[in-house]
Amino acid sequence: MFPQFGATADSLSKASTIVFRIGTDAHLYDDPDDVNIAPLLDSKFDSEKCEALKRLLALIAQGFDVSNFFPQVVKNVASQSLEVKKLVYLYLLHYAEKRPNEALLSINCFQKDLGDTNPLVRAWALRTMAGIRLHAIAPLVLVAVSKCARDPSVYVRKCAANALPKLNDLRQDENASAIEEIMEILLNDNSPGVVGATAAAFNSICPNNLTLIGRHYGRLCEILLDVEEWGQIILIGILLRYVTARHGLVKESIMFSSSSTASDLSRQEASNRNTVSHEIGEVDDGIPESNVAKVVSRSYIEGPDEYLSRTKYMDGAFPGPDDASFTSAKSNDDVKILLKCTSPLLWSHNSAVVLAAAGVHWIVAPKDDIERIVKPLLFVLRSSTGSKYVVLCNIQVFAKAIPSIFATYYEDFFITTSETYHIKALKLDILASIATDLSIPYIFQEFQDYIRDPDRRFAADTVAAIGLCAQRLPNVASFCLEGLLSLIRQECLTKDTNAFDGGTGIVSQAVMSVKEIIKQDPPSHEKVIIQLVRSLDFIKEPAARAIIIWMMGEYNSVGEIIPRTLTTVMMYLAHCFTSEALEAKLQIVNAAAKVLLCAEGEDLEKIKKGVGFVLELAKCDPNYDVRDRARVLSELLAGLVTPQGQDERSTVIKKWLAHFLGKIVGNQRTPVYPEISSYRFYLPGSLSQIVLHAAPGYEPLPKPCSLLLVDNGQCSSVVQGSDVSTDSYETDDSNAYSGSVNEESVSIYSSQRSVTGSSFSDGSEQSNSVSEVDEKDGPLVQLSDAGDAYKSQAADAVGIHADTGSHRMGESTSKGGLESWLNEQPSSSDTTSSQRDFLMTSGTISIPDLSSRVKPKSYTLLDAASGNGLKVDYSFTSRVSDMSSLLVCVEVSFLNCGSEPFSEVILVDEGSTKGVDSTEPALMSRESNVPTLVPMEEIDVLERGQMTKRVIEVHFHHHLLPIKLVLWCNGKKYPVKLRPDIGYFVKPLLMDIEAFRNKQAQLPGMFEYVRRCTFTEHILVLNKEMSNSSLTKDAFVVICESVALKMLSSANLFLVSVEMPAGAELDNVSGLCLRFSSEILSSSVPCLITINVDGKSLEPLNVSVKVNCEETVFGLNLLNRVVNFLVEPSSSC
After folding, report:
1. What is the DSSP letter of 63?
2. For strand 781-784 and strand 842-845, is the pairing parallel, antiparallel, or unpaired?
3. Could you report how far apart the first and last alpha carbons of the chain are, in Å?
């Protein structure tokens, strides 16, 4: 580039970098070992002090520990320069907890600054005092906040409001009453900025103390329009909670009609449960979509988890709110004021404010006035692309509850090609919810274009939306049904068998939509069912086949044609059973039972043989779900399959048996359409409504009229039925729902090895082991109860051994075998002895002698060419220093590759003298009194070809920066650099799997880091095992050992457990999970590592590495070190 001027691309890049750095503080990050900081802090010039403080803050941003400068920084807190004072305050906030004694010395200066004439200085002093989280100064902070709450400066009073949550965290019980007094003063402030900050503090400290809001309700409503935007959002929520708790629900709103109707509906359902019905299929446990508004309103008050669990699992009717819990928007002044002051905010520039105001009108406003929120929401939808998803999530709830308010604006929800999939899916759901007889032709025209979209997942969702429209609008059901059947035929004929599930998903959704249409009137769709059954030869998607088989079994007695085809269909399904997918097999077993219950006439005997053959095939299936269901149905249907038992059963017993089996073998297919439990039932505009679970800090509306008016005109907190100040509305999700545990999902292979390769003493393996098991003493896999798998790791418990003999499955059945079996049925003794139950338990894998196979990576300190024949290598050891936790042990090997012996060989720190005397103390590090290098024992003579090893203890100033050493040999000086290995800046931390999970749960979010890589080292080992016919080592064990050895060679860790799903295939190791624990040497902070493996045993594995650590910089660097080590091949490979 420009060679005629002598310029190159490299030189121009450097020049541009220099130009861009002019006038910035980028130079502060260049030299982390700057030695000029201390003199600059002691300078008499403020500019030099600022330069030093900026360098310290830059080092803090890079992760360096500069707390040793604390005394020199503290003495500058009394500086008259505002810039110096601000930088000192920032430094003190960061290190006050680590150096509490020195921080207390600066309290007097803070108190002095609180009386400064400059409001900025007063605000900085208050903010710093509140940020120093020391319980000893809590009374002083309380006095300072109380003083600043009455300060004439608005900025200082705002800082006092922001300091209240920090003060509350220090002494929650002691300062509660004083904090409430200060908060009441600030709520009565004339400044909107102070009121907004106080509202945020109120929401953080005492959100249920609505009595405090009642004293200032009118003033807060008046000042709401002038509060800053984010303060408006919080204040709107507080005012809405107060109105609900003080006056209850509004009669004219959607909340009143929904609550009353929901109560009546529940009483009616409860009375229906008491009536015993002798007909099958009368009870419908689903909630129709028309009742969405009722469920939404109840969820706003109770919380969705508690409401849904109660309505699902309680048999009795739940009481609805009484008449005293309602008020009128026409006569209640507080409701009028709230609606009036939030109406202008519907057109705010902040989309979050618009959502908050819309939420108030949605809950409080009369139903006739709810339409005023539609245009503001649509305006935000068109103007703000960043918040489009959030707005659509709220519109989705509004449209499902009251479709009519958005029905005329259906064109605003038409989809453009530039939108993301999540936006498209929401718009599709909204269009299907608001479609009417007038708008459905235009919506269907749009759907025809959407089906041809290149994104096949979006096209499948469009098919599901068509089915939803057909359910909501019966007039277009036949038209939709014809289109869906045509789409199924087209997709089956044009589908590419090698394509990624594009047409596959569309066929599945189309069949599901057809099923939902048929459910509305099965007798009139008999030919449609026959057509779908005949198309089983062309439809290969397992989900679609399962739905069709379910329809055949469910409607086997509908019409005249279907019963005549049952024999042929059952023979076809029996012939295809072994090649079907899991969900199709389950539906075949279900359909066989249903067909047998309703079979009559001439085909009964053939159907019995076909059903019996299907059940025998299912008993031999590899999947335990299919086997267990077949065995249960075989016992229940024994009297119907056996001709002798049929005469003994009465019609009533058979009918009740059919009703019981109908409950067991009901529709096992989860509907594509969202159930009532998957709707967003959280308050409008809340984060919980987007993430579909109760986010931290979320609370439902208080119970109506939980605040009663006392005689003196003030509000006192009186709770009806429960305590409002407690989390009485929250339920534990883990206990709210009960269900069966999937035994195939989890199986724990917990290693009983101790700290392999991570010894706590020199070369002592027995002192490291927790419970090491020899291969000769017991089997490699110990079987134990899954419920006690974790508990057995903490003690030397002996596992429960069980026989795990091989279970061979029967041969696949051909069409000829099927026909011969129908003619001659084998004896029951042969079939019962052909299979055995698999023992699905958790296994504990013991990996003995793993510590002897751990080989830490070796590095070159001095090569033979540079050392005149002396070669020096080093590797980090798992030994922990007895002198200090800051020291890392390094094993150094000295090898004489020359022709002459070497004498006086010693390794010393660069800052020390020649140091041939081993008793001379090494240079002390400036961070502490720990030496940089503990003096090593001198090697007097190193003969030719001789190797000698020494263990040295080194103090690295940072886990990424090398230290400079000097190697003396024969009186000559060789400068060398010893580079750190972050994997040995930790030591093993013994814990069981339960303690590991508990600690990992405490380190989510910003303390969790994940990277992915590819692991291939196991392939060579498996190939060697396969080539040696005498070895029969399991592939799982080989992979576990390979990954564990690699991890233990990369860092000083403790192997906690190895987990593997019990139902995994022989060559599939997906789900393998290894857990390692350690703690940082210098700070004793736990550092947890989780390895998740995915892939086939003889192929490269996809490995996910997750590190949980409180020290962010250290955790990220350790993660990079582990991933890089897993990727690079070992020397043995």
Report:
1. T
2. antiparallel
3. 45
